[in-house]
Automatic annotation (TrEMBL):
Name the UniProt record assigns to this protein: Uncharacterized protein
Record keywords, A-Z: Extracellular matrix, Secreted
Origin: domain of life: Eukaryota
Predominant place of localization: secreted
InterPro entries per record: KFase/CYL (IPR007325), KFase_sf (IPR037175)
Family: Belongs to the Cyclase 1 superfamily.
Originating species: Eruca vesicaria subsp. sativa (Garden rocket)
Gene3D superfamilies: Putative cyclase (3.50.30.50)
Protein localization: Secreted, Extracellular space, Extracellular matrix
Amino acid sequence: MTSPALLVDVPRDENITAEVMRSLHIPKGVRRVLFRTLNTHRRLMFEKEFESSFVRFMLDGAKWLVENTDIKLIGLDYLSFAAYEEATEMHKLILEQRDIIPVEALKLDDVEVGVYSLHCLPMRLP
């Protein structure tokens, strides 16, 4: 899949709540958004141990996204876009209500905010 994607910066020390989603002012019609968070600044993708305090989507943020945007793909800079204890409910919300594709484990170091051509290739598994 190749398509344009908007990279946005999430305010540091903030999970992605409805308030944060409103503050990002993502234009209508944008369908793919990559969220750079404190996870990138903390370099969590380079750590060997899982960090449970990662920045993630909160249920109200995901609900706001589903109800107020045209987004069909979200990307986040850690191993999950949802907290473990909310993962089932979060996946139901974005997959069943809007069929939004989550892309996780993005390394967004040294990438400027802006629009990019996004290439998502399937992972080759044995």
